[in-house]
Amino acid sequence: MRAYIIEDNPTIRENLVGTLEELAGVKSVGFSETEGQGAQWLQDHRDKWDLVIVDLFLKQGSGLGVIEACKQRDPRQRVIVLTNYATPDIRTRCYQLGADAVFDKSTDIDSLIDFCVDLGGVN
Hints:
- This protein is 43% helix and 20% strand.
- By secondary structure, it is α/β, with parallel strands linked by helices.
- The chain has a single domain, classed as Rossmann fold, CATH 3.40.50.
- It has a 5-stranded parallel β-sheet with strand order 2-1-3-4-5, with helices on both faces.
- This is Two-component system OmpR family response regulator.
């Protein structure tokens, strides 16, 4: 499974990539730190990703714009939000925009890994 990561914190990004590769069989195909870069990459590489993992607060723009930019994705492609602000209102907004799942960075990493494994990573 190929994942594109949109996260502006290098430490979180590197730890996430390592964890997903090791525990869920997910291969990172790249990253960006802004809404514009992420949305553009996803549009330019429509068939090069299976999963996008998006933080909501980025160097420029918002992960909400990235979710919205993925509306025309292939049905097999998944959009996951990984944020420190997974409040009920934020979760609702993300799902309204088309996110497939929303996880809290501080409490839901195991659930994120399970989600990825269920999608087709390592069993």
